[in-house]
Design a protein that fits this description.
The protein contains 13 helices and twelve strands. The chain has about 325 residues and is α/β, with parallel strands linked by helices. It has two domains: about 220 residues, P-loop containing nucleotide triphosphate hydrolases (Rossmann fold, 3-Layer(aba) Sandwich); about 100 residues, no CATH class. An eight-stranded mixed sheet has the order 6-7-8-3-9-10-12-11, with helices on both faces. A four-stranded antiparallel sheet has the order 2-1-4-5, covered by helices on one side. Strand 1 and strand 2 form a beta hairpin. Helix 5 crosses helix 7. The radius of gyration is 21 Å and the shape is globular.
Length: about 325
């Protein structure tokens, strides 16, 4: 079996707001192996981005990681100091954020910002280190198919389109050949054709370097094309985790089944797509028992009363559900 790169165990992240404590993550468990691509899927507000930020220890006040372990190559990141984490971020674990205008500094050129990352994490010495870093910045922009990269390195973010800024974030994340790459809706601002090119590029680079990836998305099509494992997230819990083929062929959680049924089928014409009733619950006062039970067609009294345990139903196929046998048999 491949080396286990990341192991998240019983992770809890809360936000202490004036309205109350938002239990954003509750006992999250996730494994990522070397060279593996894991898709993290769920509705808006279910905790996908909070999971990514927790892994990188980027949770700001009023948020706090209150419990659990985040083991990267066997070492618990929650026990690392701030300086140690600064060395890990970018060099060993990198992230492609969703909103480029939030994460690119508006007052520096693209070349300055890419060069800064390269100089910070790579061993460049001598008086020409900045020139070498700038040349590498141009090469990175070429790698992500940026039009006219020599000109782009001289420009500021406001001079670029949304798609071009997103490519800059991708280039920045790839600049130090990280061992784990997290793409948090990292191709949101790109059209479908370019999106496919970027994922093809990421797959090619991670295939060459042996890097692992976590792809956070709403799009199950992206997961089907690019991920080997899938983690389905709902209201702060990972409710199902399995090999891609096993999950698509044999979903065991009602939420997973609902998501798959909502995908339009090209071979079938329907007037109205299937949908999951209701919405993601308020995580200040989440439902008792299983957090999905108010929206679940299979729910019984035990679902309202008791929180389900994480069960390995088949080898590598985990589910958080009391009634997974009913779902499988339906």
């Amino acid at each position: 079996m491949n080396e286990l790169i990341l192991s998240v165990r019983n992770l809890k992240t809360y936000f202490y707001t004036y309205a109350g404590v938002v239990k954003a993550l509750e006992d999250v468990n996730l494994d990522v192996y070397k060279g593996e691509s894991v898709g993290l899927v769920g509705e808006t507000g279910c905790g996908k981005s909070v999971t990514a930020l927790s892994i990188l220890r980027l949770i700001d006040f009023p948020g706090k990681i209150v419990e659990g372990e985040i083991l990267f190559k066997g070492e618990d990141l929650l026990k690392k100091g701030d300086e140690e984490m600064q060395e890990i971020r970018g060099r060993h674990i990198a992230i492609i954020f969703q909103d480029p205008m939030t994460y690119i500094n508006p007052v520096y050129t693209i070349g300055e910002q890419l060069s800064d990352v390269i100089l910070r994490h790579q061993d460049l010495q001598g008086s020409d280190a900045k020139k070498v870093a700038l040349r590498r910045a141009v090469d990175l922009l070429k790698l992500v198919k940026m039009p006219d990269p020599e000109r782009v390195v001289t420009q500021c973010p406001h001079e670029l389109s949304g798609g071009m800024r997103q490519r800059v974030l991708v280039a920045m994340a790839l600049s130090c050949n990280p061992e784990l790459l997290i793409a948090d809706e990292g191709t949101t601002f790109l059209d479908v054709t370019v999106q496919a090119q970027i994922f093809s590029l990421l797959n090619e680079i991670t295939g060459q370097t042996g890097a692992s990836t976590i792809i956070i998305t709403h799009d199950l099509g992206i997961v089907a094309e690019n991920c080997e494992k899938v983690a389905i997230m709902y209201a702060g819990n990972i409710v199902e985790y399995a090999d891609r083929v096993a999950l698509f062929d044999n979903p065991l959680h009602p939420y997973t089944k609902g998501l798959l049924k909502a995908i339009p089928k090209i071979h079938r014409s329907v007037e109205r797509l299937d949908s999951i009733p209701g919405s993601v619950p308020d995580l200040i006062n989440p439902p008792s028992g299983c957090r999905f039970h108010p929206r679940c067609q299979y729910a019984e009294e035990i679902c309202k009363r008791e929180k389900p345990e994480r069960i390995e139903v088949e080898l590598g196929h985990f589910v958080l559900c009391h009634l997974f046998d009913n779902v499988r048999g339906d």
